[in-house]
Structure formats: C-alpha cells, structure tokens
Amino acid sequence: MPPYKFFFISCLLLCNIVSAQHIYEAGDGLVSFHSSAPHELIRASSGQLNCAIDVQKKQFAFRIDMRSFMGFNSPLQREHFNENYMESERYPEATFTGKIIEDNDLTRDGEYEVRAKGKMYIHGIAQERIIKAHVSTKNGKMSISAAFMVSLADHDIKIPRVVYDKLAPDISVTVKADLKPGK
Questions:
Q1: Looking at residue 21, what is its pLDDT?
Q2: pLDDT value, residue 9
C-alpha cells in the first residue's frame, strides 16, 4: 500500500480513537481548478474533498476522487480530463499528506497563516510541496483555504500537441474546507 494511502486511512481511523478535540475532519470540502491557456479557459470543481487534521501531532491528510470533478466546457472535455490527462481509471485520486510547520494552537479561536509541508500525489507522481494556507478557528470549528499552482510536467501529465494552446502547463488550484471535531 502506498504510504499516502496508509497515512490517510490511519488519520481517519484515529478520528474514532483520539479525543475529538485533536482531530478535525471534513468530507465535503471544495477543490477547484482552472487552466487559462491562450485559446481556452477550463474550470472544474469538486465538493468531495476528504480531509483530516490532527492538530496535536500537526499532521494532515487530504484526498479527492479525480472523477468527482464537474464543470468543464463540455462533457467531452470532462471525458478527456479523466481518460487522456489524469488517467482516472489508473490514478483514481489525488492526495496531499504531511505536517503543519508552525506551532500555532489551531484549536483556539483565531486566524492563522500556516505552511503545510508534505507529499502531493497526482497522476501517480509524488512531489514534495510547501503550501501556504489560511486557517480560521471559531467556536470549535475550523475553516481552511489555500491557493497554489500545480505543474502538469511535475506529475508527468502530457499535453498533446493538438491541444497545446487550449491547456495551460500550470494549473491554478484552490482548496476550501470547513472541518469539525471528529466524533
């Protein structure tokens, strides 16, 4: 089993064992992306982001099913996304797992800027990343948001020459999730 899957499963299992005040989770976070190329703008999103954060250990795991993305400019474009570029049958999910660098107590009400250092797996290729995120905690609930770029080349996603002007080599991604203490 790849290490990112083991960590994600472990985080979710911990939600049932560890005190709820240390584990925050969400199963309906939002991931959006857009590609702004010279001849086409492509947008898609999914409201099925799963995530867990252990604030005591400063560990996190995020997972998205690639087939859950909707939007696009046409059904054919979505089909090409899944079959030709992301190869969703072979690589059904993207994940990001790792640790929060800062020592903030994210359980206390407040606004925090944090950096998440970890491995991002997309299209079966792992890349170590540091992503800045904004965390807001209020009344026991946590909201997280982040915006970053993903290079298709870093994850061995090929752009066919015929659509080179329709697909940007770097994709803008935003993530938003409202997390609650685990049960």
A1: 63
A2: 52
